[in-house]
Amino acid sequence: MPVEPLARRKTPALRGAANAVTVVLAVASFSLLACGRGGGGTGGSDLDFSSTLAPAAATVGPATLTVRLREAGRAVTGAAVRLEAHMSHPGMAPVMADATERTPGVYDISFHFTMQGDWVLLVSAALPNGRRVERRVDIPGVRPGGVR
Ligand SMILES: [Cu+2]
């Protein structure tokens, strides 16, 4: 007879532990998504994302971010690649731009640095197979334009 109440008492505690593990896992995967910078993959390790900025020494004015997408060693064609460019200080609307695919898997995003200072480029790519990739590219110290 005393066995049954004991067993009942144990069950909620075990459930609580399981819930705690679930929460920890959810937080861990969220922070992976939130700071998708660097070479780590957000959607899988077989997806290769690289980007270059031209001009390399960023100044206020026009710029082009070139994004290369490869999946399992093959160029990813037909992706919808978008840019959201933010400055590090508040109160400024982001600069938005869409990419055009120059050659298979190579996407050019033309936009303008509208102010000198520190910028954060958020690149998102929606792949034809439904995958979605987001990367953050920091561009610190954009210099005033009109020097050239
Ligand atoms: Cu600004």
Report on this model:
It contains one helix and eight strands. It has one helix at 3-34; strands at residues 47-54, 61-71, 74-75, 80-87, 95-103, 106-113, 117-126, 132-142. Strand 4 and strand 5 form a beta hairpin. With 148 residues, the chain is an alpha+beta fold. The radius of gyration is 22 Å and the shape is elongated. Strands 1, 2, 3, 4, 5, 6, 7 and 8 form an eight-stranded antiparallel β-sheet that branches. The structure holds copper (II) ion (CU). Copper (II) ion (CU) binds next to loops.
Alpha-carbon Rg, integer: 22 Å
Count of helical regions: 1
Major sheet size, sense and barrel closure: 8 strands, antiparallel
Oligomeric description of these chains:
single chain
Order of helices and strands: HEEEEEEEE
3D shape? elongated
Provide the list of bound ligands, each named once: copper (II) ion
Q: Which residues form runs of ≥5 with pLDDT under 50?
A: 5-43
Helix share bin: 10-25%
What is the residue-averaged pLDDT?
Answer: 79
Content of β-strand: over 45%
Q: How does the helix and strand content classify structurally? A: alpha+beta
Taking the alpha carbons of the first and last residues, their distance comes to: 89 Å
Please give the number of β-strands: 8
Element layout with pairings:
Blueprint: H1 3-34, E1 47-54, E2 61-71, E3 74-75, E4 80-87, E5 95-103, E6 106-113, E7 117-126, E8 132-142
Antiparallel strand pairs: 1-2, 2-3, 2-6, 4-5, 4-7, 5-6, 7-8
Bound molecules: copper (II) ion.
Residues 87, 89, 92, 115, 117 line the site of copper (II) ion.
